[in-house]
Amino acid sequence: MAVAVGNAQVSDIVKDTIRLDELVITKYSSSNYRIRDIARRGKCYAPDNLSDASEIISLVDNLPAGELNSIRFYFNEMFDAYKRLPQNVTDRDFELLLYRVNDNNTPGERLVHETMLLRLKKSHTGGVVINISALGIKSPDRLFIGLRLLGERGKNDFYVDCLCNGYDKYLTLFRDSASKDWNRRWACAALKIDVSVAVKK
Question: What is the helix (H) or strand (E) element at residue 7, kind and residue range?
């Protein structure tokens, strides 16, 4: 088991007090595997508060063969609701969604049936990593990746970071509940996400 620590820094003057911004534990040995990161980036970004959706997923393609290692989502980078409207913002829970892709570019079977929660404080901004290396999921070439918002939705609440252009090459879908049909999400060209895949050397 390999352990990688990133962004360690002294948080105050007290001796030996260190704050870790991120601790990533992975089962992949660096001698046998290399981690390939696929970043979904664009020319501009836009916030989406999911006021009319409980689930949002984006199609990610051209993934390398290997095992899925981690997924990073981004929140509140473009519009920090906590600073502007703190009375309307609460801590938020999200569930990770991974779906296979059908031939007609619709979501197929769910790849993860365990509930993998992402708990975020209302003041959070920036990226959050979900490590899924222990699940041993083989990386398909194409995959729908996204989030389910748990609890009641707020009008000026948490914002998920999206690409604001590229509708001709990206596909993002949403639905109000698991019993409803998927629809194209025009307000979000694609979720801003990073996918890391463990590839054998």
Answer: strand 2-10
What is the Cα–Cα distance from 11 to 16, expressed in whole angstroms? 10
Kind plus residue range of the DSSP H or E element containing 109: strand 107-110
Q: Compute the distance between CA of residue 190 and CA of residue 56 in angstroms, rounded to an integer.
A: 10
pLDDT (tens place) for every residue of the chain, 201 residues total: 443 333 333 434 444 444 434 444 456 555 688 989 989 888 888 888 888 889 999 999 999 999 999 999 999 887 655 566 666 677 888 999 999 999 999 999 999 887 888 888 877 888 999 999 989 999 999 999 999 988 876 656 678 899 998 888 899 999 998 889 999 999 899 999 999 999 988
DSSP state letter for 124: -
The residues facing 74 across adjacent strands are: 127
Bridge pairing between strands 143-150 and 92-101: antiparallel
CA 72 to chain centre: 4
What is the total residue count of the chain? 201
Q: Reduced to 3 states, what is the DSSP secondary structure of residue 133?
A: helix
